[in-house]
Amino acid sequence: MTTDQNLMLYTQLAGFRLVVLASRFGCDSDFSRERHDRLVEGLEAAIARIHIIMELERSVLVGDDEFAEYQLEGENEIFGRFTINLLDDLEFDCDTHEFRVNGGEWTNALAVDDSGVDIDFPELVSLSEELGSLAQIIKDIRLATAITIYAGRAV
Q1: What is the reported pTM?
Q2: For the residues 112-133, what does the mean pLDDT come to?
């Protein structure tokens, strides 16, 4: 991305952060407030990444760091995979048939009994209705910035 594109993205992310903070005042439950807080944290992390990218672009243009171009390429690649996770983070280890939710303890999904072998991994279920007004904000962020936002609960 160019400096102008990054500046525009920075501005959009900062604006969405303000929208989420304003929307948080209308929350009627702890669940909703926590989702808003997680989204604000994610947007702040994205803003920090864009700030780093813009600093590296400046270093490349000025030529004061010989490795800045490689760092910039890596940061752009990392930002291209940037996601914000509002609920559960689900990790799988298919080799050992284990999973963990939100960085907790690994749990074995493999069960063996006289009827055979059963592998029961949890799934992420979308919570679009439970997000209320935040659902539209998330959709707008996705359309404007292409940042992926996960809002699913492990069941």
Answers
A1: 0.75
A2: 64
